[in-house]
Amino acid sequence: MSHRSFFISVTILVLLFSFSARSQETSATRDLDESAAAALRKKAIELLESVAGQVDSLHSAENRARIGSNVADLLWSHDQRRSRTLFAAVEEDIKAGFNDTDSNEAAHVHTLLVFAKLRSDTLGRIAKHDPELALEFLKATRPAPEVQLPPQLNYERSLESRLASQIAAKNPQLALKLGRQSLAKGVSDDLLSVLSQLKAKDKAAALSFHKEIVDKLKGEHLARDSAASEVAVNLARSFQPPEADEQVYRELIGILLATALANGCADATADEAPRICFDVGSVFSKIEKYHGQSAAALKRWAGDGPDYYPPPMSADVREVIQNGTVDEILALGERDPNLLRQVRWAAMSKAELSGDVARARQIASESPDEEQRSYMLAQIDQNQMWRSVNAEKLAAIQRQLSRLRSNEQRIQYLLQLAAQVGGNDRKAALGFLNQASQIIDSTKPAKAQLQGQLGLAMLYCHLKSDRGFTIMESLMPRLNELVAAAALLDGVENNYLRDEEWNMTGEGVVGGLLTRLAQNARSFAVLDFDRSVTLARQFERPELRLMAQLRIAQGILANQPNPGLAFQ
After folding, report:
1. For the chain, what is the largest distance between any 2 Cα atoms, rounded to a whole number of angstroms?
2. CB-CB neighbours of 304 under 10 Å
3. CA distances from 145 to 49, 96, 107, 148, 155 (A)
4. Residue 398 and residue 390: Cα distance in Å, rounded?
5. Distance of CA 111 to the CA centre of its chain
6. Are 409 and 418 in contact, with CB atoms under 8 Å apart?
7. 450: buried, middle or exposed (CB in 10 Å: 19+, 13-18, 0-12)?
8. Are 259 and 223 in contact (CB under 8 A)?
9. Percentage of the chain exceeding pLDDT 70
10. Do the Cβ atoms of 528 and 465 come closer than 8 Å?
11. What is the C-alpha separation between 248 and 216, in angstroms, rounded?
12. DSSP symbols for 222-287
């Protein structure tokens, strides 16, 4: 990877996370008094309503669905009736998308995947508000049998499982029904998430569903189906007696034992052994407990216990780690002990990035794993070493800067430092950005300079400096020129347009730049809402204006924005 590629993909994207993460446990209006915060939210609602009124003016079903879905989600608590109308319109646009008839096979498949993703995202948004409506939406937008999505997606089964997991807290019986529908289509790790949610809300439903999963596994070829094998092993590790029925759990362990013996694990060497041999090693203590004599032949596969293969994270677990509070993240470990290592690390990182270093150290110190505890504490010490800058550190920084070979490396280094110290030493961080700005200004007016200027604008706004707006206002004419040029190259260089509108999927250099601006719209909105709206209205293409205004409103209204992710 070139320095320039690394500069944009790492520095501007990854480093901004350290800023955004500090704000995720507080609202966008945390520094405002109650009346000012209410006034800001009122402005955001008015802007959102304006966007809602213009969605129908868009030509692209993709853009209507993408923007309409987000607007409906944000407006639900303010105007539920309008939200339902918007979601109904999104439903029609998604069905239209699945009816694509493009004769170009690659373009056709791409269109189906885009609308499949829109359907999945919208389903998740509706499920937060109305589980029954979400189920209706799932049924109404189900692709026709002739619509051929890539088989490896396991698309419908995955959506059913995810929806079941989301709604289990509100409607366990409906979640159980959906889980069973998904199970009928096959075994997947999403089922474990459903089971986990049911376990917390309806023990009887959880026991019933657990037995049904085990019965399904009896007919699976675990040695040939790694997904089914993974589910069986993780089920054995995460749902044990007394929570699980003793007899059903014994049957599950027996399935793993029989599969391992039938596939030569008793005699195979490590080099030639199938995956199932290593899998059973991670739960060997359970096999030995329930099938002592028969298990003896597999004793040599006993590995490192539950951490031999860390369990995959389900969608709901990833959501909590990404957007939850420190306490909510730690609660995941109580729900599933197999996630303790990953959860503890995520909670420690969230606490540190939010500025609560004492809590981060407490979480690290309480780890029963000595190696993990030592590593976590060392990581905190290393991170905190650069949270502030004194004269000695500043001198060392300048010496390091002089040793770097290129302007791109120097810019990257300075932005890294600004991101690192910005939470505790704003003055030093601004100094690093000012120094980076001088280098960027001396760089050739091309891709690297533009990327650097955008990165500076975002970071300045994170640090509450108006200079971010000054940079963006100077760049808007150039961005419009690049968008116009990219539109002319549609289908030649990249697929920028759909139905003659910008498709928001972030293709190409220009698409990537616009996506990163969308990811960080919240920082602009919080710093100066009115100026942000004025800036958004400078986009010449109507669809880009609407998207920018949506993201500005979203930055204020969403409880836990996540600027580190691409817009969905």
Report:
1. 77
2. 9
3. 37, 15, 19, 7, 13
4. 12
5. 22
6. no
7. buried
8. yes
9. 88
10. no
11. 12
12. TTT-HHHHHHHHHHHHHS-TTTS-HHHHHHHHHHHHHHHHHTTTTT--TTT--HHHHHHHTTHHHH
Q: What angle do CA 194, 199, 202 make, to 5 degrees?
A: 105
DSSP category for residue 489: T
Degrees to nearest 5, angle at CA 402 with 399 and 406: 145
Decide: 560 and 24 in contact? Cβ < 8 Å.
Answer: yes
What pLDDT digit, counting tens, does each position of 89-113 carry? 999 999 999 999 888 888 898 899 9
Buried b (16+ CB within 10 A) or exposed e, 109-139: ebbbebbbebbbbbbbbbbebbbeebbebbe
Weakest-pLDDT range from 28-32, 96-100, 327-331: 28-32
Question: What residues have CB less than 8 Å from 366, skipping those under 6 apart?
Answer: none
d(CA 490, CA 100): 19
> Per the structure block, which two tokens stand in for 314?
């389900």
Backbone angles phi, psi at 501, to 5 degrees: -125, 150
**94 and 63 Cβ atoms separated by less than 8 Å:** no
**Which tokens is 31 given?**
């520094």
Q: For residue range 476-501, list pLDDT tens digits in order.
A: 999 999 999 999 998 888 889 989 99
Residue 529's nearest CA partner among 20, 22, 34, 36 is: 36
**What's the start-to-end Cα distance of the chain, in Å?**
27
Sequence letter at residue 27: S
d(CA 81, CA 72): 10
Handedness of CA 129, 133, 137, 139 (dihedral sign): positive
Average pLDDT over all residues of the chain: 85
Q: How many CB atoms lie within 10 A of CB 53?
A: 11
Pair 497, 490: CB distance under 8 Å:
yes
Q: Which of 554, 452, 399, 441 is nearest to 47 (CA)?
A: 554
Instruction: Kindly state the DSSP code that residue 55 receives in the 8-state scheme.
Output: G
Question: Quick check: 88 pLDDT over 70?
Answer: yes
Residue type, 372: Q
Please give the structure tokens belonging to residue 253: 């362990």
What are the tens digits of pLDDT across the range 150-181?
Answer: 765 577 888 888 899 888 888 999 999 999 99
Instruction: Decide: 216 and 195 in contact? Cβ < 8 Å.
Output: no
Residue-wise burial string across 229-267, b where 16 or more C-beta atoms lie within 10 A, e elsewhere: bbbbbbbbbbbbeeebbeebbbbbbbbbbebbbebebbe
Query: What are the phi and psi torsion angles at 302 (to 5°)?
Result: -60, 120
Q: Give kind and range of the element (H or E) at residue 497.
A: strand 497-498
> Which residues fall within 8 angstroms of residue 249, CB to CB, at 6 or more apart?
236, 239, 240, 241, 290
Distance of CA 531 to the CA centre of its chain: 29
Q: What pTM value is reported for the model?
A: 0.78
